[in-house]
Specification:
Length: about 80
Amino acid sequence: MMVTGNAARVPHELIALFMPARTMTATIAAEMGEVAQGSTHYHVLFAVGILLFIVAFIINAVASLVVIRGGPRRGGRLMG
């Protein structure tokens, strides 16, 4: 949270992309302890967590497909 600046704001201009921001995981960590259980804010934080899970799953699935389709080309020539 310290590295990104921990500023909870949405960039409205292109130059704002280089200003301090807060990652989605940092938002969950910072706000989950203070949010009322069962509120809309609570459910949105869980939706952010589910979105992060889906993105991580897709990236891992694509990486696995790339490795599997790459075949046994690791380490040099094939014996045979």
